[in-house]
Amino acid sequence: MGEMETTRTVLTVTPEAAAKARTLAEREGHAEAVLRVRVVAGGCSGFSYKLSFVDGPDQADQVIEGHGLRVVVDPASIPILEGSTLEFRDALLGGGFKIENPKAEHECSCGESFSV
Q: Is residue 20 within 8 Å of 96, Cβ to Cβ?
């Protein structure tokens, strides 16, 4: 059972999302691009995502590396995020970072909030 734990992918990062995050981290003055993805209670559908740059992972975090970006996820967010993809869309409306979560049964129109 323990071996399966390590092979499951919590989050996949697209090359576009990694490149944009690296650019933003550099602009904000971070030496290394470490993006925290957290699921928080709230929003119009029950949960929402919070993305922020951090200096490094906490001890309990799961670290996902992809395309020069390190993404850290706290243990409470892992079961909800599992199997998701972090994307970046370069569009005026609805653009920006987006998490495609196969577990999200309902997403509100703003795309910021979801329920599982």
A: no
Distance CA 3, CA 54 (A): 29
Q: Tell me the domain boundaries of the chain.
A: 2-115
Within the chain, where are the H helices?
2-7, 15-27, 78-81
pLDDT per residue as tens digits for the range 54-73: 999 999 999 999 999 999 99
CATH code for 2-115?
2.60.300.12
> pTM, whole model, 2 decimals?
0.82
Long-range contacts: 28-31, Cβ < 8 Å, 24+?
28/53, 30/55
CA-based nearest residue to 14, from 81, 91, 68: 68
Helix H or strand E segment including 112: none
Which of 33, 44, 114, 110 lies closest to 81 in space, CA to CA? 114
